[in-house]
Design brief:
- The chain contains 9 helices and 22 strands.
- It is α+β, with helices and mostly antiparallel strands.
- The chain folds into 2 domains: 23-87 and 145-180 and 256-475, Outer membrane protein transport protein (OMPP1/FadL/TodX) (Porin), CATH 2.40.160; 90-138 and 183-234, no CATH class.
């Protein structure tokens, strides 16, 4: 997890490298992941096991399905955050000192252009070594996503067998960052490396080129040109552009995109009894304010020192308003009703939106599109008479990311042991069927003092880290 711990300090420049984006942001991700505190501690489960105050965001049917519940339940408030970095990114980020490594290459070109006999050979060797290291680390970062999710929740619930209801305010968002490392850049860096391993001070002259043969680009870029005094000079690949096409020597970029969803929902749940069983049905109509933030700068935009990521995101945002609907079912089994099965469908109305268009200094522009897809999840819970609860959830849909993050189809399992109705100890785990690098172990606890409840949780994996905290109240 080193990358997740060092990124807030390191990620300020692109291709120094393209990992500019683990910036703080409140966020809901395309995964079915509420970041509810109790759920996080129990393997991110809750479709059949959520407490009344969290039922509206997990499965509204639970509001009329509890065998023992408070008359009023509140969350005031709850917060959660987690982060994911693709496999092998840890080592690549640790090896890169992003801004320093790019600056080193530019400074080496300046030193080489002094044509100092005493340092020329050492500078060419240093340039080659740094360029090779940079190339290897760029290739390790290719298309590897970074995601941060966050959540804030306030809710009010009145569970009841006849008609349970809840109202909530939810602020959710996700920020997804993906480096796009161009094969052209690899050609440029390797071409410079090959040149400097062979060049000698007495044979530096114009007419030395690096061949760039990659997708949509086939040209020769000069390595040596004549300066304003008619003397040979090395071209800095970090800051220079092709004299023929005007395309920068380095064209790698990073896509930084975020979606912030603020929603207000009102949940209703009714229990229907039949001959030998009863089923609870719940719905949550909700109003959503959806704001996207989008930027896709190139390496040279970042390296010129004038590009500000936060300003770019703020100036390239686009807001949409929408309504949607969640629906759920819940049933209890056995004579003591200790087993609960639940199912929920979130976002019954699939919707698609455009981001704002990001304008580059050269006049080109780019934007992307993201979807609010339907999600389906099933859950199981067993509650014993001695304070133990076991729960499990599984996604029935493969949930695509908003942009270029990872797909998710979660399976989680967890347990809770209550000690004297005062202390709740929780443990669990969650895996992603769509990505074997996305698995976590989870833990947490809840403390009940009179009507006040405090919950804390954390999750950890090779590529993940997260935590959540919640304050609530129960009135019986």
């Amino acid at each position: 997890m080193k990358s997740l711990l060092i990124c807030p300090r390191k990620i300020t420049k692109l291709l120094g490298l393209t990992v500019t984006a683990l910036i703080a942001c409140t966020a809901q991700a395309a995964p079915f992941n509420t970041l509810d505190t109790r759920a996080m501690a129990m393997g991110d489960t809750g479709v059949a096991s959520a407490q009344p105050a969290s039922a509206a965001i997990f499965n509204p049917a639970l509001l009329s399905n509890y065998t023992a519940a408070p008359k009023i339940a509140l969350i005031i408030p709850g917060f959660g955050v987690n982060a994911f970095a693709g496999a092998d990114v840890d080592d690549a980020l640790e090896a890169l000192d992003e801004e320093r490594q790019l600056t080193q290459l530019s400074n080496m070109i300046l030193d080489l252009n002094t044509f100092n006999l005493a340092t020329f050979q050492q500078n060419t060797a240093d340039f080659s070594r740094t360029a090779v290291d940079l190339t290897n680390n760029l290739q390790a970062l290719q298309d590897r996503p970074f995601n941060i999710q966050g959540n804030a929740l306030i809710s009010f619930a009145m569970p009841n067998d006849d008609l349970g209801f809840a109202v909530y305010l939810d602020a959710n968002a996700v920020i997804e960052t993906t480096p796009f490392i161009s094969d052209c850049d690899i050609d440029v860096l390797l071409g410079y490396t090959e040149f400097f391993t062979q060049v000698a001070l007495d044979n530096v002259s114009p007419g030395k080129f690096v061949d760039v043969n990659c997708t949509d680009r086939n040209e020769q870029l000069p390595i040596v040109v004549l300066d304003q005094f008619g003397l040979p000079a090395f071209v800095d690949p970090i800051t220079s552009k092709s004299p023929d096409t005007g395309i920068p020597y380095l064209v790698s970029s990073v896509e930084v995109a975020a979606v912030n969803i603020n929603e207000i929902g009102f949940s209703l749940s009714q229990k229907f009894s039949f001959a030998d069983f009863a089923v609870s049905v719940g719905v949550t109509p909700k109003y959503m304010s959806i704001t996207s933030f989008y930027t896709h700068p190139t390496v040279q935009q970042i390296d010129d020192g004038e590009f500000d990521l936060l300003d770019a995101l703020r100036s390239n945002r686009l807001q949409h308003n929408a309504v949607n609907l969640d629906a759920g079912l819940a049933m209890n089994f056995l004579q003591d009703q200790s087993i609960t099965l639940g199912m929920v469908i979130k976002n019954l109305i699939q919707q698609s939106f455009n981001t704002a268009r990001f304008e580059r200094p050269d006049g080109s522009s780019t934007r992307t599109r993201y979807n609010l897809n339907t999600q389906v999840r099933m859950g199981f819970a067993w509650r014993s008479h001695f304070g133990l609860t076991i729960s499990s959830d599984i996604d029935l849909t493969d949930n695509k990311p908003y942009f270029t993050g990872i797909s998710t189809q979660y399976f989680g399992i967890g347990g809770e042991y209550s000690i004297g109705k005062v202390l709740d100890l929780r443990l669990g785990g969650r895996t992603n069927f769509s990505n074997t690098n996305d698995s976590v172990v989870t833990a947490g606890f809840g403390l009940n003092i009179l009507v006040v409840r405090l919950d804390l949780a954390a999750e950890y994996g090779d590529n993940n880290i997260g935590f959540a905290a919640q304050i609530g109240m129960n009135f019986r």
